[in-house]
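User:
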Amino acid sequence: MIVKKLEWTDVFAANCYFYIDEASKHGFVIDPSAHADELINLINQNAWTIEKILLTHSHLDHIGAARELSNVLNIQIFGLEASKEYLSNPLLSAHFTDFNVIKNIEPLKNGDIISLKENPDISLKIIATPGHTIDSAIYYDKKNHIAFTGDTIFLSGIGRTDIEGSGGNHVELMKNIQNKIFTLPDNTVLYPGHGNQTTVQNEKSNF
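Assistant: Predicted structure:
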């Protein structure tokens, strides 16, 4: 597997990831936050075929380029089912403009498996981890010991729960980290929405 991280520091200080099957060159893009043109150029340069856009949550710094990327590549955007509520509820999505609202998001449920059409052996399991937002989730690759955690957990840190209009809940976040992330194998590499990668073992020891 290829995991390619792009870390933006100008428009939004956030991480975007490409998750690519090395054999078929098919894969997913996770949290395309900005710079759609650069993302498309990278895809073309590597002859990748992106099958789906996956969102860990609906904060603007994680979805800023999602709609443009979806239109250019003619692919769908997927997120936890609560994302539809987040994006359509003006009390939650007050920080969006019409340009940024995603109206055609495909809802996923906790436990759903997203597989590559080109190689169904490559798959991610969506695990709901609300707390940072109502629609926070991680994408877990059991076979390769990888998890994309969005803003649920970082290297030596956890997501904020006090961002107005996100439906944050600190108690719920802590429970989901302990019950859904720390129960993954210790050698699972965590790729967060901001900053550097870490492991389950490292975060458990510093929690």
